[in-house]
Design goal:
Helix content: 25-40%
Strand order of the largest sheet: 3-2-1-4-5-6-7
Low-confidence stretches: none
CATH topology of the largest domain: Rossmann fold
Number of helices: 10
Largest sheet: 7 strands, mixed
Structural class: alpha/beta
Number of strands: 13
Bound molecules: 5-O-phosphono-beta-D-ribofuranosylamine
CATH class of the largest domain: Alpha Beta
CATH superfamily of the largest domain: Formyl transferase, N-terminal domain
CATH architecture of the largest domain: 3-Layer(aba) Sandwich
Order of helices and strands: EHEHEHEHEHEEHHEEEEHEEHH
């Protein structure tokens, strides 16, 4: 299976970057580091990455417009072939355009148990509040600072007499455990058949009057007592693919889709011209798009009385 390709953005010491990099050396690790980039040409972490033979890029943000600086970073990240971005002590607020481009594929590590203590001075805040535990979180990056969904956390007990520095050092150890693990889980689920099936299930069962059965060993979604509109093909006849099969208009649309992207679309064996196979295991599945495919497929088999009801509902 192809590994996810990670670009890490840092501004300083880069100890989290190093933790990700060393974890990536394990043969079972589902990601590899393709770039370490920084807004601080003096960042210590750049030297570590270079010594490890990783491509590095530094571009100071001084005297450059934020959007332009972000665009320069984005270009390098794309050029390095990255599929995901891991922020690891990157001390820059990112422009909305940059965040949008990497939405769902950019993670960050933060030294607190989010949603507590967003921003800076997290350790002192936890001590001042008399908290028993501090910790760290890995979360998805959204436009609002430190507010994307939390993917994983580790709690770290506060010891009597802890200063912010002492606590920070211990939380760092936890960070180094957490980040590689959460990143590995996150990039793996995008190709994990069970996770992909669950995603399809959620979208398919959101269609009106739909249910799930098993057909020819495949999870199969249809209209209750009616026709089927989707299947999840799981290594069917050992083809190694995880794919969504949905209805299409016929041979012409099938050929056009396959022609547009031969890796993603295929003619599902035994299903004929009225169906298309869409690979879900390429690591970049657009789930909004899959939702649209399922709705279209549902509509293609739904009885008139149901589609009419939907049309009327749609008018309100
Ligand atoms: C870490 O504490 C991380 O949680 C925060 O910035 C710090 C980066 O440290 N976002 P390092 O450069 O990885 O050592």
């Amino acid at each position: 299976m192809a590994k996810a390709k990670i670009a890490i953005l840092i501004s300083g010491a880069g100890t989290n970057m190093a933790a990700l990099l060393y974890a990536a050396k394990h043969p079972d690790c589902p990601y590899e580091i393709v770039l370490v980039a920084s807004n601080n040409p003096q960042a210590e972490g750049l030297k570590i990455a270079a010594a490890e033979g990783i491509e590095t890029f530094a571009q100071s943000h001084e005297h450059i417009d934020r959007a332009v600086h972000d665009a320069m970073m984005h270009d390098r990240i794309v050029h390095a072939g990255a599929t995901h971005v891991a922020l690891a002590g990157y001390m820059r607020i990112l422009s909305e355009a940059f965040v949008e481009k990497w939405e769902g594929r950019m993670l960050n590590i933060h030294p607190s148990l989010l949603p507590r203590y967003k921003g800076l001075n997290t350790h002192q805040s936890a001590i001042d509040a008399g908290d028993q535990v501090a910790g760290c979180s890995v979360h998805l990056v959204t436009a609002e600072l430190d507010s994307g969904s939390v993917l994983g956390q580790i709690e770290v007990a506060i010891v009597e007499g802890d200063t912010a520095d002492i606590l920070a050092a211990r939380v760092k150890m936890a960070e180094h455990q957490l980040y590689p693990r959460v990143l590995a889980e996150y990039v793996s689920r995008a190709i994990d058949p069970a996770w992909l099936t669950a995603k399809v299930r959620e979208l398919a069962l959101a269609q009106p009057e739909s249910d799930e059965v098993t057909s020819h060993g495949m999870p199969c979604f249809g209209i209750i007592g009616g026709k089927k509109f989707a299947y999840v093909s799981l290594d069917h006849h050992g083809d190694g693919k995880t794919a969504l099969l949905v209805k299409i208009s016929g041979a012409e649309e099938q050929a056009m889709l396959i022609d547009s992207d031969e890796e993603r679309y295929y003619r599902p064996a035994y299903f004929g011209d009225g169906w298309i196979g869409i690979r879900l295991d390429l690591g970049d599945t657009d789930w909004d798009h899959m939702g649209e495919w399922l709705a279209k497929s549902w509509r293609a088999v739904a009885p008139k009385k149901l589609t009419k009801l939907m049309d009327v509902a749609g008018e309100f």
